[in-house]
Design brief:
heterodimer, A: about 200 residues, alpha/beta, Rossmann fold, six-stranded parallel β-sheet, two-stranded antiparallel sheet, about 40% helix, about 15% strand, B: about 170 residues, about 20% strand
């Protein structure tokens, strides 16, 4: 399964969902595929699920999607226990698991290329709707269904290592610019002021 | 901490607009947890560690909440990464409500806490996280409001380090 193909399918099925990405290849690929103002391209590993959880709790009527990687989730495994207990119904986590630290340029294997099963860990942490997806047909069914279902979803998508993100342009919006675009979009669509933005 | 001080602290948070709190409990300020939990205007979220508490609070802030993170100062060390990346680099205001163990004003200081306390302020300074020590209840409500206003204006975390009367 190719990550870019999965993201293309997701992008085609999006409307007003909020998408939070961690710092890995899918951040670049997603920013190339989707120019939606509800995208928050968090530029750090190990933070996307936490930020997405906070958004989901603050806006329980909005669907929030976290796009993460195996290396990033391994950096923040504590999120599994918290999600397993909070179970926010409006949050979906897609972990694109290529089994390597691709960004390291030496593609050193992650724990998931060995004995570690992130979906089993998520289930053990209390996330009932946690599954491993191994082919695109299954991804298509489970991802589209999850977009309409009111249940926390945690999907470990086994993908091939792809270097496509190195061939497409990296996003040229900086973190602050992206944050304000995202916040202004929320202000418009939620019809409320975000407190910290304030007035000069 | 006397119950009255705990009530003032929570009311001060509410008056400053705080409506979302992530936390890991500790020993000095823990009376605030049931008060926040039982307040219908506030959301209290238990995190597995302080790094996560910071990221969840940051997400809630971006979603329109005025968020605080309650932690022991040991949690500053645990959450350095998310304070720097999400808090400072992305620029998300957060009020950090910190039980300041092991500092000079900690009335229960001992060899267990002193090393942790000694390095807390230098670590905050190293990250550029502004802070002040709150050792008594004088103008508590005003100091909390000032801290939240500063965090919002700076678009960054601001730390209140509670010790002295709060550590009894």
């Amino acid at each position: 399964m190719i990550r870019y193909q999965c993201l293309e399918l997701l992008a085609a099925n999006m409307s007003d969902q909020l998408v939070v990405t961690s710092q890995s290849g899918q951040r670049i690929e997603w920013s190339h595929l989707s120019r939606h103002e509800g995208n928050l391209l968090v530029g750090m590993m190990g933070c996307a699920i936490g930020v997405a959880t906070g958004l989901a709790l603050a806006l329980p009527h909005r669907k929030v999607i976290a796009l993460d990687s195996d290396g990033s989730v391994l950096l923040s495994l504590f999120n599994l226990a918290t999600l397993g207990n909070l179970r926010p119904k409006n949050l979906i986590v897609f972990v694109f698991d290529n089994g390597v630290y691709s960004g390291s340029r030496i593609s050193y294997p992650t724990a998931t290329s060995g004995n570690t099963d992130l979906a089993a860990m998520a289930r053990g942490a209390g996330i009932e709707n946690a599954h491993t997806i191994r082919d695109f047909a299954d991804f298509k069914i489970k991802s589209v269904e999850a977009l309409t279902r009111k249940e926390l979803g945690f999907f470990v998508c086994k993908v091939e290592e792809s270097l496509m993100h190195r061939e497409i342009p990296r996003p040229n919006t900086d973190l602050a610019e992206n944050k304000y675009t995202f916040v202004r979009y929320l202000e418009r669509t939620e019809e409320k002021a975000i407190p910290f933005v304030g007035r000069g | 901490m006397k119950d009255e001080l705990a009530k003032r602290l929570v009311q001060g948070l509410k008056d400053a607009g705080i409506d979302f709190v992530t936390y890991l409990p500790e020993t000095r300020l823990s009376q605030i947890v049931p008060l926040i939990r039982d307040d219908p205007q506030m959301t209290l979220i238990a995190a597995a560690n302080e790094q996560e508490a910071v990221t969840i609070a940051a997400g809630a802030t971006l979603g329109g909440k005025q968020a605080a993170v309650y932690m022991e100062n040991t949690g500053i060390y645990v959450s350095c990464y998310s304070l720097l990346t999400v808090g400072k680099q992305l620029g998300v205001p957060l009020l950090l409500v910190i039980g300041y163990l092991g500092g000079v004003p900690d009335q229960r200081n001992s060899f267990l806490y002193a090393t942790i306390g000694k390095h807390t302020i230098p670590v905050l300074d190293g990250m550029g996280v502004d802070h002040q020590v709150v050792a008594d209840g004088a103008n508590l409500e005003g100091r909390i409001k000032d801290a939240v206003r500063a965090a919002n204006a700076l678009r960054a975390p601001y730390a209140l380090l509670f010790a002295g009367e709060f550590s009894l």
